[in-house]
## 1
Amino acid sequence: MQSYTPDQLLEIGLKDLWYPLCPSSFIKKTPVSLRRLGRKLALWRDQQGVLHALEDRCPHRGAPLSQGVILGDRLSCPYHGVEVRCDGTVTRVPGSPGCKLEGSRPTFHFHIREAADVVWLYNSQEPVDVPPPLVLPEELTNDDEYGHFICYTEWKGDYRYVLDNVMDPMHGTYLHKQSHSMAEGDSSAKFGIRATDTGFVFEKEGQRNVNFDWTEWADTGTHWMRLEIPYPKTGGPGGNFIIIGSYTPISPTLSAVFHWRCRKLPKGWQRDTWRFLYQNRLEARHWHVLEQDRTMLENMEPDANQHEELYQHDLGVVRLRRHLKGLAQAQINSQQNSTV
């Protein structure tokens, strides 16, 4: 790891974590180039549909591998035909057979998983042969009890402002007060923080199942957030509307924003009914709410967090920022100690 301050490391994303990159549908029959996590990535599927990811840079002259040809688990660079395998090994240099580049492993490779309709990448500090398991919340893994839709978008600005926004339940009472599901409850509240096995919950005291009343932050080897919003009966069968969020830096001025809209419903007519209602009546309303968030965040100054006057409602934001800064400092210290 190069030398970073905690803020610089957080800007591009902590290391040794799983991050969502894009919906699975983004990657089809040709290689795709994505900028994420301070890197340019080349992603492709082999003949069996298995995903692979490399740095999008040929080790010969730096040409984009994503412009090349798929040869199973290899990409052939379009510039001089150099073939790079999914583990970063150069397997063939057709213009100079037997040269020292052949058999070397100069290209950074990444471990990829597909889950919950999304491509996930393990952002390892150093190449690893076996990454830790990708552990997601039950709503995204228990298909027998939960149904979900992925809502993906990209917002201008630092992804950490998106984290702040979700860790701020009180904004729902004001910014989204015209929403069909966030018009109820008190317009003032006191908040508390409750620790969990994987993180913490920031919640209103004395109000539950009325509005956007709490947010959970969790670290299970990937960072995700969870909240619930009560739904009227017109929203179809099932309990509260559950939202799982995870956010990835594209650049310091662009964020990949993932929200899974979930409902606890068994397979069968109830889930089918909800999915029909969601796609035909509810989805547009939810995108409208997201547009309110996007408009607010994109029109904030990049240094807005340097000019804040915080109060009790912001305890969750402060807790999360301190936690992330502590994780960044720990990674920097670990790297420095390993090089001594």
Note: Residues 269-298 form the longest helix (30 residues).
## 2
Amino acid sequence: MRAAVLRTFREDLSIEAVPDPDCEEDGVVLRTLACGICRSDWHGWSGHHPRVKPGQIPGHEYCGEVVAAGPRSGWDLGAQVIAPFILACGDCASCRAGVSNTCPDQRLPGFVEPGAFAEYIAVPHAHNLTRLPQGMSPVLAAGLGCRVTTAFHALTDRAALAPGEWLAVHGTGGIGLATLILGRALGARVAVVDVVPQKLAHARALGAELALDAREGDVAQAIRDATSGGAHVSVEALGIAQTTNASLHCLRPLGRHVQVGMPSGPHARMEIDMSAVYQKNLALFGTRGMPSHKYPSLLGMIEAGLVDFSPMIGREVALSQAGAELALFDGPMAPGVAVISDFQG
């Protein structure tokens, strides 16, 4: 099959012919219909992700068609499915407790084993998969596996965002956009922070009441002033110290900070203003992924027309363009996310 392979950190991906994947007993093999290009892929491409090594096929936000099914997979050939990026075992204490995104035996295509920057992908633990809703495009569905699911779990579970509360979003890349869109759908008032004017304009068009340029002063103070005391919930969506501290500083007393951005490489350890946490009685939450059993709730909102994620999709690209797209994460980017939809180009 054709695949984009990471051979050298921070260099273009190598388009190669590699062996087709094998199907495990509890898994499936998918013909990849679409795969998102995510900042987490960039962490691996940059050499900042501790699990990603040269030789890796990236890609963890994917939608595909079942072309092979193991005897314990529970899926039929031809089914079109969406995959979460965390493939939990289903048997451990975490999985039985309903927090499968913390499964200690999770499988991670795209990071530890071959991912979906390829024509086919092997998916073990296929009980994690969810059927593609009728009428949903594979390109849109590909964005649900990481950015949207992580944002959904962050807001509905970790932060328990309530209607009428102020939500601050620091960074309006893919996961920041998903957080904005979901926050609005859940009845929150949303403030966003970025440094790219086009992204701020895009956020305003999607319903952000405040769209602040971080280069133009103290955004935390601006949020506190505009919200009569500070945001109730603040989501950090980049994984760096500057935005993490801005997130803490923009909160009102008893506010909730959610760390959605992945701190990696030189940002894995940060200097954080813990005095603000102490003085304001703040709650800090980490979040990563979403338990797969929550897919029906998320997809139900989409199918009912309560939320529309199509504005997240910025462009469709060919497999051969994936490396160039990863390099774009080095600097300010245009609004929207890139999705691979052509695996021959």
Note: The chain has two domains: 2-143+309-342, 148-286.
## 3
Amino acid sequence: MEKKKVKFLIATLSCFLLISILITPSAGQPPENFNFGDNFYTTFGLPEISGNLIGSNEFERGDKATLEINLVNKGVIEGFRSEIDAIDDEEIKLQELEKQYESDRTTAIGIVSTLHSQDPEIKVKSGSQEAGTLRSGEQTATPVPFDIEISKNAKAGIYKLEMEVKYAYQENVQVGGRLSNETLINREIGLWYEVNTQKITIPIKVKDEADFSIVDVKSDLRPNDEGILQVTYKNQGEMTAKDTTVRITVADPFSTTDDQAYLGLVEPGESKVAIFRVDVSEYAIPKTYPIISQIRYEDTDGHDRLTSTMRVETEVLPAEPINTTFIFLGVLTILIIAAATVAYRKIQGKQK
């Protein structure tokens, strides 16, 4: 019967651990109703939860990923200290009974894990996760999942995430009972539980890569005209980009047949200018329009990479005003030529 009671107590404790961990226990102080029997042993050893990431820990800027973390209980019983010497057969039986239960001290009950990031470039999107109960030597049947999001501005390198693991464990055991015909009857088992917290470091790596940004845009584009668009790109990443090519995608009021520019080798920290010839519709309104650009390059491993799209904010200037002075001079020139032609013909007619 007492085994059923113990199992029920453990199951109940596991279900309510999420609530109980919010209450700070009085460390080392047993509950008032605990001291009803004999305490033959003090046991040494605790659960020891370790965690490791399943799969690769390398990610790229802008990634959204699910970390699957496997938990293992490596806790061991380090020893026993006798508190009471058994002096008769009944106490020997009680002593043996207590030792059986003391071996459960390394079981982590109702594990609750929470993943934290101290760096704003890495965001943990999942809340606390339950991982059940692990006896010594056991691991989670399925990995504990946590969703993360890596900023597009994250620097390459190692980021250390911290996983906080909370669980209940068996702090002490007391037993009671009476020996009858070499059998313990009226047995009572007292289990005292405490809550423990562990912190586990989960390192992830943001990979080196070329990271391009637009640092300057120059243009002289006007309605009903063709002009030059110059866009300066800077490699702000950690990797050299080879065979770098920029491609633009235009929409009304722009059109072009010159939509690609070759930048070649672009070292980290280096800037290069891409030049495009762009036609502007005669109906274009003077203002700023977006042109979409994207860069394709080869990384140091020989793999083709494609950046995310970048907006080129492109200004259309007002059409140049007509120069009336030149128009007047042109008309005057035509009139002079016409008058001279008429005069010349009249002179030729008189001579005949």
Note: The chain is about 15% helix and 45% strand.
